[in-house]
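Re: Re: ligand-bound prediction request (bumping)

Still looking for help on this. To restate: I need the protein modeled with coenzyme A bound, output as structure tokens. Inputs repeated here so nobody has to scroll up.
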Amino acid sequence: MATRKKAAKAKSKAAAKKSSKKVVKLKTVKKPAANGNGLPRPSNKPWGQAGRALEGVKVLDFTHVQSGPTCTQLLAYMGADVIKVERPGIGDITRGQLRDVKGADSLYFTMLNGSKRSITIDSKNPKGREILDRLVKYCDVLVENFAPGALDRMGLTWDHIHKLNPRMIVASVKGFGPGPYEDCKVYENVAQCAGGAASTTGFRDGPPLVTGAQIGDSGTGLHLALGIVSALYQRVRTGRGQRVLAAMQDGVLNLARVKLRDQQRLAHGPLTEYSQYGEGIPFGKATPRAGNDSGGGQPGWILKCKGWESDPDAYIYFITQAPVWGAICDLIGKPEWKTDADYATPPARLPRLRQIFDTIEQWTMTKTKFEVMEICNGHDIPVGPILSMKEIADEPSLRKTGTVVEVDHPVRGKYLTVGNPIKLSDSPPDVRRSPLLGEHTEEILRKVLGYSEKELAEIKVSGAITAPEKPAKAEAA
Ligand code: COA
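Reply:
Sorry for the wait, this slipped through. Here it is.
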């Protein structure tokens, strides 16, 4: 018995020795860290030199106009290889819309399609379909924002794509989600209206207003990009792709959620931070338009600054944040308001906001918006100058951070574009000019899809990558 125990002890000692040796070996060959999450060890490369965040992700970009291109441009800035498919001879319709330079792609197009490659393929040509199938097998993500049903009519149904490439993520922008309006075509302002934003924008005594920020198009593109990177992350575990849908109505509502908040608060009484409350105007059944009232709990308004008579942007947004009320009173020459029961507390101020902002405006009108900004920031008072697009374009700090970037285009020359508004410390953005129509067609067919010269010659005569020849003038007559 004792000898058997001794032998077992010796065996386990040897096994332990062996396994401890194994551990040492594991360490020396730099296998994945034994932390259980299956991730590689942290890179030792200097920050910004370990590749871009989405490097290796291949995107088949079937987008056009604004919402889809916003999404794929962001993915490209993050390092994805974005291959934009366009109709031969025509391309994305925005290439020719709102043209400012004769013969050059419009800024509408160039500012939404930077850092991408362009290939022309007629998706209704049999050879074109063959090329698309190869691209489907090659890519990780297909992004599209055609009218409902258009992708299916091209033969690119979910079943077809999933069969060719089960890892493919198919991401779509549509105007509406499933429901009564799902078949409708939608543009920016339709979405702003249907998503609830327009009914809550503007002044109470005026009609609904749309905003200049493209919350329906660019906003939904942003939502879609988040859906895509989430699906890519889930694919690491499941190995399969999925469909991602961002409906513009949903995207706008998500951005206007504080107004749905107010809708529900209405059931419990008036919205006391709306100036309408102070003016004694009763609330109706729905969230009203609130002019320039603040959307949060700190009252604010847009006030005139020096030069407002001739400069349409000489204004500042002024927030009467409660903790700095004393500093505001001192600045505007009303120190007595600090202790006056009618002004000293936020609830006491609510019914007289209009009069309070009129008084503050008497002070802001004596200063430029930048002077007001400097003085108020010195006292921690939150204010925002109304910056014109000219001021934004000229602002050196935005150039320095890469939010506004100048790129050079072979036809139009230099132009400004908006770089990546999201900054990653280990993934420097890749902001390049937009491609010319079909600029990378041959490069992609040869180098990405591996077509031989003979096959390429066949493709060229098939009409799959070139616009149909226009008949000669004499024939046309
Ligand atoms: N080769 C051949 N045909 C192509 C093609 C290609 N490379 N690329 C597009 N087409 C065809 C499509 O197959 C479609 O043809 P079909 O209707 O015969 O099937 C056609 O071009 C036009 O597509 P569609 O999306 O209907 O364009 P539109 O100009 O009529 O509508 C929108 C534009 C924006 C209203 C519509 O696309 C839409 O509602 N999209 C979803 C919501 C959206 O993103 N809106 C915001 C836009 S910023």
